[in-house]
Amino acid sequence: YGVTDDHAKSLTSERQVADFYEQVAAEVDPKLAAVWIADVLKGELNYRDLKFRVFANNPPNCWYCGKEMQLEGERYSCTCGAFSDKNTTLIVKADKPDNPVGKLPPEYMVKILDFLIKNEITEDGSVEIIRTILEKSIPKESEKREPIEEIISQKGLTRVKGDMVIDAVEE
Predict the structure, then answer these.
(1) Rounded CA gap, 10 and 12, in Å?
(2) CB-based contacts of 6: which residues, under 8 Å, 6+ apart?
(3) Closest CA to 102 of 80, 128, 131
């Protein structure tokens, strides 16, 4: 992928992080993905004492009771009732892995980086989106995750283009 040694070490230190990175790097520039996952996302997780929990297509073991989970339709579940979801990254308290506090699917990270690449948001705006996602609790099954576009709109994170500023000053 052409990433630095430090980023490679950071991205491969935990299988969950490596899996997440692989999914994001398949969709956007691998170097950009490495910087944002190894530095920004892991930094934000560390600041909040949070960790990754990733469930891929193979049946995971329940992080609560340890039993193998069963695939039911599109979702994994366990008889103990602990939450899980197919191909989703759960963000959990480091000292309470049975208590997920947020969801960050790889496709959300891809979208954030796409907005950044297209200059539609700033780097600070990208960090703010990540922080917003990490601070929200997991939506109930009947609720939808908040789209990235909605977070950008609600928080006013759209990049102001140079001509827009000049036009506003001239008015």
Answers:
(1) 6
(2) 38
(3) 131
